[in-house]
Amino acid sequence: MFWRMVFRALIRQRKKMIMIAFTVALGASLATAMLNVMFDVGDKVNQELKAYGANIRVVPQSVSILGDMFGDEGETSQYLREDELGKIKTIFWAFNIVDFAPFLDSNVVLNSSAKTKLVGTWFAHHMELPTGETLDTGMKAMKNWWAVEGNWLSDDDNDSVMVGAAVAAKNNLKIGDSVLISSSGKSKKYLVKAVFDAGGDEDDCVYVNLASAQDFLGKKGLISSIEVSALTTPDNDLARRAAQDPQSLNMVDWDTWYCTAYVSSICYQIQEVISNSSAKAVRQVAESEGAILNKTQLLMLLITILSLIGSALGISNLVTASVMERAQEIGLLKAVGAHDGPISALVSTEILITAFIGGCAGYFAGLGFAQIIGQSVFDSAINIKVTVIPLTAILIFVVTIAGSVPSIRLLLRLEPAEVLHGR
Questions:
Q1: Are 24 and 355 in contact (CB under 8 A)?
Q2: What is the value of pTM for the model shown?
Q3: Using an 8 Å Cβ cutoff, are 41 and 293 in contact?
Q4: What are the φ/ψ torsions at residue 57 (nearest 5 degrees)?
Q5: Chain centroid to CA 6: how far?
Q6: Is 179 helix (H, G, I), strand (E, B) or coil?
């Protein structure tokens, strides 16, 4: 009898029930979309920010000490080894390393008069990793926002240079010109293949491929520094404590920190595989990543909460209207002996069934909205999170019950005699 009454009520009031289901579906779809995006936005935001520079810099220990003591790294006789670069992709968080590039730099003389900095690096380097995998990395991927007039260098072009915009302006250089670079009594002519505008200190430099720089400077197999782009987790108190002194952590905190993609954890693991190195976060990039990610997630959480509040208000109004229309039916049930509990259960069951149907429809619609957001904002698909299903179900249940409470309270206050007499 109970279920017959439930289904008959659903059929009789199908228009209002459809409106309730539609209201629930709207809230569920927005909640599903925002929660899926919120859980996946970390990697997406980090990936977007990787286009604006590395967030980790690796230098020899002596260079790091000079920088800490005097605020200026200066030049040093200590270098890192090029043959150890592949080890960066063997650390625990290897898959979080997006790109990296080595650098060998030195002060030189340009065209016998102008002082500048010569920088050797990888531009588009293909390498075999110790794991047996292959990797294509270098400046072309890491610095793709540079405005380049001409063509990027290749790693087998030993006789060409890319000139920074500031150097080109000071020395009246253009593409096709020849430049003479001198250092320690040694000189070599290069062809200007490109002029780039990086908008930073790089504009005062001249870039060549790494092998050419090593040969010219007599530093075969050596590099001055490494820039690394890594996907990281925003810092918290544990990460900040570990960055100050990892040895101060207890065993539990150490395992948590080491197995979480904090920038300090990745730096520590890079130091473990690169001999005599010091890896540090580029704070401007690393901190902006965390700030942007936290604000983005907070915005999505607020949108979700506001949408659910709106759904609760809509459900409350629709259920109240439904109860008022059925006042005589409910009054009759009370008059023949039905108690408040079974009547409340009857109305609640009708609403929950409707909410379940609306919630299912809203969940699948929300998956579609999430993909639209992913393609529009991040130009990639959003990974569907299984944990969103129970979260959405719980939220819809809470919102439906919360929206129904005022109507159920009204129902319980109905007096059979007044209702049946039309008062």
A1: yes
A2: 0.65
A3: yes
A4: -125, 130
A5: 47
A6: strand
